[in-house]
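Lab notebook, bench 4. Continuing the backlog of folding jobs that were queued last week. Each job is logged with the same field layout so the records can be merged later without manual cleanup. Today's entry covers Heme utilization protein, a 116-residue chain. Filled in by technician R.K.

JOB TYPE: sequence-to-structure
TARGET: Heme utilization protein
LENGTH: 116
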Amino acid sequence: MRFGRIAAFCAASVLTGTLAAPALAQSPYDGNWQVVIVTKSGTCEPTASSMLTVADGRITAPGANVSGTIGSGGLVKVSINGAYANGQLNGNAGSGKWNGASAGIPCSGRWEASRQ
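JOB STATUS: finished
OUTPUT FIELD FOLLOWS
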């Protein structure tokens, strides 16, 4: 289901990486982030949650085809299997919007993230 793959950005499978220490971070947003997504329209799952890793400003999740970045100002841009999300991180929290499809039916909603 595409929404489950959206969860890789906005959520995927639980991340098993190590937490980047703030003193060693290469960008202000490096580390592990808990992401919760909420569907506002469409037939995707109502909510999903997962962990993602940001390293050197790049967003990754194990077992997921995620392509995304976080700029030095906290601007989030990510895509995963035809779904897209964008938003803003500020300090240890952030939020934004996402859109994609489930079984060819458009879905969209919001996401929230917190650094772990």
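OBSERVATION: The CA atoms of residues 66 and 80 lie 5 Å apart.
SIGNED: R.K.
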